[in-house]
Amino acid sequence: MNKTELGSIDTKIDARGVATITFEHPAHNSLPGRLLKKFADAITEAGDNPDIKVIVIKSAGERTFCAGASFDELISIKDFETGKKFFMGFANVINAMRKCPKFIIGRIQGKAVGGGVGLASAMDYCMATKYASVKLSELAVGIGPFVVGPAVERKMGKSAMTLLAINATEWKTAKWARRKGLFDELFDEVSYMDDYIDRLAGKLANSNPEAMKLLKQAFWEGTEDWDELLEKRAEMSGKLILSDYAVEAISKFKNK
Q1: Which domains does the chain have, with CATH numbers?
Q2: 136: which residues sit within 8 A by CB, 6+ positions away?
């Protein structure tokens, strides 16, 4: 089976109204276009569901939260429209998180790369373990973190985003990411993090939903142009992914 056909998105809702959206892919929780579409739809549907009060986003497995873009899909892109469509997948997920009227809690149990850092940045409240190192690797494969950049900059500031974008091959520790504001809480063990998330989600589920909706709008004030902005950024990546440099770099990276 083609690896881009693997993986899943699963939503579970508990009796408190806490929805947990879990994504999974055997290639270190990378996200092919098919999963990105399901991911964005799942977030939108959870936001529209009156029975859901708060959302938790997590991935399967232990030491990798998300490896970002699917290299199998990136290497198969042969034209601009296909490239733009793929990168719009990440744009649509980030915009779905931005527009969702409910708070989104992030559970980052391990490493986050590229688009994975973008996902973490778009959470409203983000918890991580000490194993959650981060890296924006896009420049190393001939493109750049254009689509996720606005979310990363909003959460961490331009200085930290610039550092990650330029130093594309070096991991930064979870403690560094916590100091820069990407993570709101940091835990030594996954079990401690899960207990904290469960308590916080339960408290939020009992909060005034209208107050949370208005707070969410206030938190994201100034991002109203992101539908257009992230589409332009997807076009940048869609062009760059066709360059000889990117094709060669991705091939080398994939064959390591």
Answers
A1: 3-206+224-254 (3.90.226.10)
A2: 113, 114, 117, 145, 148, 152, 161, 164, 165, 168
- Measured in degrees and rounded to the nearest 5, phi and psi for residue 31 equal -125, 100
User: Measuring CA to CA, which residue among 102, 94, 86, 2 is closest to residue 49?
Assistant: 102
**At residue 204, what are phi and psi to the nearest 5 degrees?**
-65, -35
Q: What is the pLDDT of residues 202-212, one digit of tens each?
A: 999 999 999 99
Residue type, 208: N
Instruction: Write out the E strands in 95-179.
Output: 104-108, 111-113, 125-129, 134-135
The token pair that represents 201 in the structure block: 């989600």
pLDDT beneath 70: ranges in the chain: 1-3, 254-256
**What's the length of the chain?**
256
